[in-house]
Design a protein that fits this description.
heterodimer; A: 502 residues; B: mainly alpha; three-stranded antiparallel β-sheet; 71% helix; globular; disordered N terminus
Amino acid sequence: MNLSAVLSLLVFSPLLGIIVLALMPKQAEKAIKIVGFLGTLPALFLSLAAYLHFQWGKDLADFAVAKQWIQFRGLNVDEPYFAVNYELGLSGFQLLLVALTAIVATLSAIAAARFVKKEWKGYFMLFLLLEIGMLGVFTAENLILFFIFFEITLIPTFFLIGKWGYFEKEKAAYSFLIYNGLGSAVLLIVIMVLFAKTGTTNIDLLTQMMADPSAPLSSDLKLGLFIALLIAFGVKLPIFPLHSWMLKVHVQAPPSVVMIHSGILLKIGAYGLIRFGMGIFPEQFDQLATLIAILGVINLLYGAFLAFIQTDFKMVLAYSSISHMGIVLIGLAAMNQAGVQGAIFQVVSHGLISALLFFLVGILYERTDTSLIENLGGLAKGMPIAAGFLLAAGMASLGLPGMSGFVSEFMAFLGLFEEMPWIAAVGTIGIIMTAAYLLRAILGMTYGKAHREFTGVLDLKGVEFVPVIVLMLLIVLIGVYPSVLSSPLQTTLETIMPGLGG
Amino acid sequence: MEFVHEGCQAPCSIKGIVIMMENAWLIPLFPLLSFLILLLFGKRLKEASAYVGILFTLASLVYSILVLFERFSEPTYGTNFEWLTIGDLHLTAGFEVNQLNALMLVIVSLVSFLVHTYSKGYMQGDERFPVFYAYLGLFTFAMLGLVISPNLLQTYIFWELVGVGSFLLIGFYFYKEEARAAAKKAFIMTRIGDVGLFIGMILLFWQTKSFEYKEIFAAVDAGEISTSMITLTAILIFIGAVGKSGQFPLHTWLPDAMEGPTPVSALIHAATMVAAGVYLVASLFPLFAASKTALLTIAVIGAFTAIFAASIGLVQTDIKRVLAYSTVSQLGYMMLALGSAGYVAGVFHLMTHAFFKALLFLAAGSVIHAVHTQNIEEMGGLWKKLKLTGPLFLIGTLAISGVPLFSGFFSKDEILAAAWEGGHPILFLLALIAAFMTAFYMFRLFFMVFTGEARGSQKHVHESPANMTYPMILLGVLAIIAGYVNTPWFGTFLGDWLVDGNEALAQHGHIEGPVWIMIAATVVSLAGIYLAYLMYYKRSLARNWLSGTGDTLHTIVLNKYYVDEFYQLTVLAATTAISYFLRFIDVFLVEGLVKGVVGIVQGLGRAGSKLQSGQVQTYGAVAFIGLALLVVIFAFTGGYLR
């Protein structure tokens, strides 16, 4: 079966929405919102179709595309061409991230329709462009293409934060751009060195070449490149101490953008670390595994302790993201099947949970004009359904069994305990702290006495139920029946693991 | 999904009639359905929600009883299916019906059913009536799921879920600050323990490559795990039990948990969830039995908790808090039993305690329902007004005090015998003193509530409605007769059955202690009652008789040995200090780094802007030099840099 066009269609389908939007008048608020929402649907359906395709026992390799794209060489005619091809592909891991992106993007479009109050046309055009970038990042099969899509995500995000954010939106947008720009610069250097040294940027090819001991790269150079990758994706993840930009973004960006940012964009860092860091440089990853584990525990605890004393719920969630990304590092550092699968689960799980939490924050902020914990309190009285979902989302985030967060946390720790039990044991303090800071914040807002009267505060209504229920169902589904995620991952694990020598 | 049948050995496949046990997974499913239905339609069902909850738990109860009866004649049944694949690791989920969990299924579903029924009267008129029943359903589901888990991971999963059920119900009156604080405290303190269980479980996994109890026991039996590893994992798992069962030093959440509605205290914080720690140790008993150190740790913690909590119970004035400390103390008893290798003793007391403590809490609820206060100083003289509650409360009090012929007498005797035979004379003595204290504070409670003159403002005191009294009557009957399933006089049916066919447990069956232990226990218990009688009924002894030497001791005990304050000053303060220290780092070091990065970028920008002088000649010159350089490089290298 030839499905090679499907993937390109999937990645570029939001373009259709952009074109339609471009032709629409600026004032047609409702129509713009509908088109913006519809624009995300083709990617959603196609990615779900791809998932079913896999579950029906068919091969994901059917989706691979490879077309000649750019070629160049020096003036000597006998030199080989440097070729950058247009190559897209799907592995189980990529499939999950594409599906996650499509789902969160659709729900974020619904959130945007609720929360964005001005210039809808510009918002949705940028938003759809951002979706193209994200889908491309996760399907690109060569580094140049990956880099191009990666850059495509930066620019719309910059404008979305800078224009539609809260009070200090410009500052947040610039700090986002500077940090991520520097990260991309480092990434570009790595890609160029690899390209120059090996003559290819195809990821699979590079992976094979690096496994070959006669590869034209010294181990020192490889280590240097790996550290550079760690920094480049460490900015994105983020790894302490490269995190301060994302705090600003979490607080200042509009809720619908934070859903995307925290749900998907941070995950590009994890994806890069797994696909390129671990895939292309397994030996170097192994060399630095202890360091990565320690960084993971630092992230986990640093985020958790700081979340414990925040006064703004958004900041609690921002630090919580840092903390949860620590679990990704912990799982990866274990370098065994349990750990890596745990890390990947955490990527998906946190994507869903943080999207849910930020959507609820958006609701709360819209209703009460504040996200300061001390200004809230007793919200469970006025808005019991929203408060209930907030508590449930918090439970998911703190790793309650039966929800996705537990499965990932459990596997990451299971993996690390096999390799580095002491570091893992220190990390488990994070499990307690997560419960402490989340309950402090959530009970602070929803339980107890109301600090002021919220007149006319409305509970969840209408279309707002869609993101909340969809996300919650997915979170519970993964928690109860984790095979929905683990079955596509098994082949990915098998391909990564030989490189790890285990 | 492939079902792998296990534990069904040759004889059972020949007979093949284990229909009840085969479908035992239905038992936890009923309350889950109740939870889901009430979550979705509770608002519309209003007070009818109670019937949904009651019917579904009744289904669980009936089914549990059928399973128990089937288990009498059939061997252990279990089944597994694959839950999660991690490369070569295959983790399973499933269920098992052995003696211990068949018994637990009945205890849990029975108490849950009775509490469901009772709550219909107790919670009448509450705005969030359906939510209450939904939470009860969730908790019952989790607790029953915990009980039939065949492996550690699944146990952990439900272990956490019962914690949530408990958390939600403690915080049921969410608008009360105390309820919020208590719910938060319960969750976090039990989670501290859970992390111990979590680590222990994972370490065991890497020893045996399995979470299955059977595999773990087999590995322990075959000596595949080093003794130090067994001790370490056993103690880590025990830490989980310490958290859940309110053992010292993680006990402080349990008395605070009394902020929840009283039926909840009966179900969760007396009969079922808090006993889960004891149940966990019991179901992993072969692991613990393989480490002397682990057993001794359990015995010491148990005995200490028993006397420590009992001493606090002596001076509390809140009816529910007295009962809460008594629960902590009784759980300590069970731990002492298990730690002294008295497997049957521990499980036996778990069962009798579930009945008489649930009874006491429900009766206390009935009292609170009648007088609208929890302070025993404001009660008194209720014996004549609460004609049913009074005698029932007395039955519970007699049972917990270990008065002969009541259920608590037999199980407590078994524990004391276990402690003595286990070679712990000091712990035995502690337990005996704790028994004295128990009898004393329970009768102090009884006399202050039911006898003497009415204190405080009591108006319109009347007995609770039938749906509240019937569950209490049933529990009252059980509190009397439940002990006779395992007595030195009429046969040790329970003990023999519990260890039947299980080699690892065979030597931990019923323990026949010397006769003087039974006499000593009786004397001690009667002495405690007599002292309470003198002080609180006859009032011939001054109430500060015990703390006559000054008030220091009294104050310390009244303030629960300042454990909460100690945690406040150490753990909480340290956590906050670390947090602020890290914030300092975040604000100064990390932001400093940011400023550095921004500075470099800005510097580069400024340098770049200087180049843009606007002089076309300069531009031309620079462009020319650049081009010349490129040509030179090309000439030398013939292409790109190598």
